[in-house]
Design a protein that fits this description.
Elements (H helix, E strand, L loop, with lengths): L44 H10 L5 H10 L1 H9 L10 H13 L2 H10 L2 E4 L21 E4 L4 H5 L2 E5 L6 H16 L3 E4 L5 H11 L4 E5 L12 H10 L1 E4 L9 H14 L2 E4 L8 H10 L3 E4 L10 H8 L3 E2 L3 H8 L21 H9 L8 H8 L3 H13 L3 E4 L2 E4 L1 H8 L6
Parallel strand pairs: 3-4, 3-7, 4-5, 5-6, 7-8, 8-9
Antiparallel strand pairs: 1-2, 2-6, 10-11
Helix pairs in contact: 1-4, 1-5, 2-3, 7-8, 7-13, 10-11, 14-15, 14-16, 15-16
């Protein structure tokens, strides 16, 4: 399913709100540490950067403030240490004020620039419109590392997620699916973690494809550390994105909240391996809430690491086993998976009536035409006519008044098994 919308390229959701303000933002009257005025704040850029330091990702209350009051007014209330905004206790408001006091958006932008990172806001040309489906939990903005256009890449993307402590089977399936999607021109999105995430990223890169890593920390601080090389490679060949400003570290709650971005950014989510309490199931549940496709790769019935996937499949997820089946769901009309069927056997080429007579012959002994006719539900004369056809093709031979399968026919037609 493609997110519906009006305008823009296929697959993108457009939410055309009021035009973004131009000119200097709320922080424009504050001089920088060098004594110079801050750069022009187009559309609340500095304000949004400021808020990424203060409001946690996915904070629905903070998102509602931004929607109802605007970025500048929210920043002003936090900077002026005024009365709490609606929906928070004084204790929580005090915590937000403490964060606001330490926030320095100009410094964050300078650090980002030094590390090749840019900040993309809602309404920017590069902003993926489908993230607007998150409503008040929509990111305030995204820190992006990599030269590709995030919006264009997200239009044709699929999420591959799963267990960190995956099995060899899970890692193989994730890499194989990612490589297959990459070869078909799809972008593979995952979380950069150990296990299924890492296998998916490597599979896409190994196939010469594109991949996006959505991190639960600052994009200048790769996590886990053991994936620093992989995330660096993704930044060079793909895109690394995150909601948190430079230097921020991950927490368990940030991992879970990060998953909603993966789900919203893509056309569908595939869970490769997941136990019942796996965090990757949160991605699948978010995808389902957003109306995206939810898919699962089956594993052994005895594997606890596949139990969560199997539960998804028992609900409304779709079972997939290769890239063709994924693309059939998330792709354009006509992108169908090839028809699945076993190998063509010699008897498959026979006329159905002739094949029915052939099936009526026992494997090891000869049979009289009358007995063959009864089993094949036809007349003796018709059975004899069909037996002579089969004899010409080398399937049967005559023994006195009876007919018997040839040795080669037993091997090719019955597979050598005694089924009678």
């Amino acid at each position: 399913m493609r997110p519906a919308g009006s305008g823009g390229p296929p697959g993108e959701v457009r939410h055309d709100g009021p035009p973004r303000p131009t000119g200097q933002g709320i922080l424009s009257g504050v001089t920088g540490r060098d004594g110079l005025p801050p750069p022009t704040d187009h559309g609340g850029l500095l304000g949004r950067v400021f808020l990424t330091r203060v409001i946690e990702p996915g904070d629905e209350t903070g998102g509602r403030w931004v929607r109802e009051l605007g970025v500048d007014r929210v920043v002003r209330r936090l900077r002026q240490r005024g009365e709490p905004l609606p929906g928070v206790s004084r204790k929580r408001w005090a915590g937000l004020l403490a964060r606001a006091e330490r926030a320095d958006p100009r410094r964050d932008l300078a650090v980002a620039q030094d590390t090749g990172v840019r900040f993309v806001c809602p309404g920017d040309a590069e902003w993926p419109g489908q993230l607007d489906d998150l409503g008040d939990t929509r990111p305030l903005g995204l820190w992006v590392r990599g030269t590709a256009d995030l919006r264009l890449w997200a239009l044709r993307s699929v999420a591959l997620v799963g267990a960190r402590a995956c099995t060899e089977y899970g890692a193989f399936m994730a890499a194989t699916l990612a490589a297959g999607l990459a070869e078909k021109g799809w972008i593979v999105v995952s979380g950069g973690a150990y296990g299924i995430d890492g296998a998916a990223h490597r599979g896409a890169l190994g196939a010469g494809g594109a991949t996006v890593a959505v991190l639960a920390c600052g994009v200048d601080r790769p996590y886990p550390r053991g994936h620093a090389g992989l995330i660096g490679r993704i930044a060079e060949q793909g895109i690394v994105v995150g909601e948190l400003p430079p230097g921020e570290h991950p927490t368990p709650s940030r991992f879970i909240l990060r998953n909603r971005v993966i789900a919203a950014l893509t056309r569908g989510t595939v869970v490769v391996e997941a136990a019942h309490r796996s965090g990757s199931l949160a991605t699948a549940r978010a995808a389902r809430r957003l109306g995206r496709h939810t898919m699962g790769v089956p594993g052994p019935a005895t594997s606890g690491l596949s139990a969560g996937v199997h539960e998804l499949l028992r609900q409304d997820a779709v079972l997939v086993t290769d890239a063709d089946e994924i693309v059939e769901l998330v792709g354009d009309m006509g992108e169908l998976a090839p028809e699945r069927r076993g190998p063509v056997l010699p008897r498959d080429l026979l006329d159905p009536a002739v094949r029915q007579v052939l099936a009526a012959l026992p494997t090891r002994k000869a049979a009289h035409p009358d007995a063959i006719a009864r089993t094949a539900q036809t007349t003796p004369d018709d059975a004899i006519a069909k037996l002579y056809e089969l004899r010409a093709l080398g399937y049967v031979e005559r023994h006195g008044d009876g007919w018997k399968l040839t040795r080669q026919a037993v091997i090719s037609v019955r597979g050598g098994a005694d089924v009678r």
